[in-house]
Amino acid sequence: MKEISSLIAYRPDVKVVDATLRDGGLVNDFYFQDDFVKALYLANLRAGVDYMEFGYKASREIFDTEKFGKWKFCKDEDIRAIVGENATDLKIAVMADVGRCDYKTDIISRADSPIDLIRVATYLNTIPAAVDMIEDAVKKGYEVSCNIMAISNSREGDLKVALDILGQTPVDVFYIVDSYGAMYPEQIARLADLYLEVAAKYGKKVGIHAHNNQQLAFANTIEAVGDGVDWLDATYASMGRGAGNCAMELLLGFLRNPKYNVYPAIRFIDTYMSKLKEDGVVWGYDLPYLMTGLLNQHPRAAIQFTKEGRKDYTEFYREVVAQD
Amino acid sequence: MKEISSLIAYRPDVKVVDATLRDGGLVNDFYFQDDFVKALYLANLRAGVDYMEFGYKASREIFDTEKFGKWKFCKDEDIRAIVGENATDLKIAVMADVGRCDYKTDIISRADSPIDLIRVATYLNTIPAAVDMIEDAVKKGYEVSCNIMAISNSREGDLKVALDILGQTPVDVFYIVDSYGAMYPEQIARLADLYLEVAAKYGKKVGIHAHNNQQLAFANTIEAVGDGVDWLDATYASMGRGAGNCAMELLLGFLRNPKYNVYPAIRFIDTYMSKLKEDGVVWGYDLPYLMTGLLNQHPRAAIQFTKEGRKDYTEFYREVVAQD
């Protein structure tokens, strides 16, 4: 059983990362209004959030810039237009996907960029490419984290090898990523143990990025905090792909460090997130996401169901269970 | 850390209690159509649910029968009209509140009733009255559980005394009840320890009834299962007062006993629960419930906010924080 003190005191090493624009951008193809992004930046500042992820550094060779909003590409000048010199405590992050990013050219020296943290996202089978990206980003002066995605169907042995490889790079943080929203807190506890063991060996930190398919994104996040995980991803009103993420308002309400403040989060949701929902942007827990989560599948079938405005849950269940 | 076997195997002693009509009835004043109730009964049968709670045995002296649907009062004949002789494995439960129930007259001998289980609901300060109700129900032949409500702001010492008193009665099950949705899994683990210790001493079982104010109803329920709690309350689509309860569809998806089956639950929600929502019945996680949960308050202010169709979350936060 966890120490009672962990619910009363706090660990100063905990960092909250706002992933609203990045994971939420997967819902609306990154078409956020500038006033939304500016207000989000201010909300994060006021709420005491540590990092704000603006979106992806996606390749403009691979992705059509006409088909996505600008936060899919996160040009430094676009970030600068929101944050100016960012003379604040709030650090700026972007995500760079292995194989979908021209990092050698698109990520410039940190000294000339508003960005502080590069979040390298990889699958288990692309770890060597992730290592190259990590080394490139560290050389350019950035803080670097690495998200190993879709681990809920990976083998523990493979994961150990991957973490050991990453441990030998200059990466700062390993992330536990429950891409499918398939994991229970007990499983998170065991994964946290594994990640923290390797992290301790190499002097790294551990983070968590959860999805809400089974209404466990927040529960899994606070399970991880109790286990010693320090970097916590959250999004306002849970906005994120499919069932969404750990809700920022829940997380800020839970954390005991007085630097965090839930009121600006509620104000931001009241003014901006409710409007997005009214405008027809759809995300969050629903039966199809529960089903793909239960079955440990990628949520794409459920996302398609939602996009088509379907409501025939029973038929959907038959479809996903019948799949080979 | 919990045994990995607890996620792979199962405990045959686990019982699932469907509280949809009872806790959900608090949302729509117990006005459920007969076809809904009949379909719910069949869904429970098919899903392998162990107990179905029909509603309250409320006093017709205290409550106006014109102002509530029949499941507020749960006359034996009304239950019989749904279940007939109930020659099934699904047992029938009703709740009886201390001080709001004419149990001496309204609860007849089990031999003449379709009801199997009386769920006595009490606050800490009415334990002696609960004891009288428990003894009365056991004498009449019923299984009996006791829900001690609103424990999130009670003192541990008082709770221990209450459990010790209940342990000496013929009650079968003590329930952990997080009425305000204020508790985190770590706190549930500690409470489960306390309840289970007393339960072991007196040969009782322990149950949990959770609320979803912080999206933790399911998480708290599976935390409790992992700790050794056997009786689990859930409602279809989380229907219940305020933020609602642990979702039946999540719980059935989690439990490993092959007697449980999530498909009938999905079918019932698809056909019946979605319709209730379309008809304007409102429940479920929303910011005001998060706030009362965080502040460990009764959800009544949040329920009022929802009833009035208010959307000014920021103002609501100011109101509840400013309260003396």
Strand and helix layout:
The structure is a homodimer of 324-residue chains.
Chain A: H1 5-8, E1 15-18, H2 20-28, H3 34-47, E2 51-56, H4 76-83, E3 91-97, H5 103-106, E4 117-122, H6 127-139, E5 143-148, H7 156-167, E6 173-177, H8 185-202, E7 205-209, H9 217-227, E8 231-234, H10 248-254, H11 263-278, H12 287-294, H13 300-307, H14 313-322
Parallel strand pairs in A: 1-2, 1-8, 2-3, 3-4, 4-5, 5-6, 6-7, 7-8
Helix pairs in contact in A: 3-11, 7-8, 8-9, 12-13, 12-14
Describe what you observe in this structure.
Two copies of one chain form a homodimer. Chain A is an alpha/beta fold and 324 residues long. Chain A contains 14 helices and eight strands. Chain A has helices spanning 5-8, 20-28, 34-47, 76-83, 103-106, 127-139, 156-167, 185-202, 217-227, 248-254, 263-278, 287-294, 300-307, 313-322, and strands at residues 15-18, 51-56, 91-97, 117-122, 143-148, 173-177, 205-209, 231-234. Chain A has an eight-stranded parallel barrel with strand order 1-2-3-4-5-6-7-8, surrounded by four helices. The longest helix of chain A is centred in the middle third of the chain and has 18 residues, at 185-202. The first copy, chain A, is globular and about 55 Å long. Chain A starts with a helix and ends with a helix. The mean pLDDT of chain A is 96.
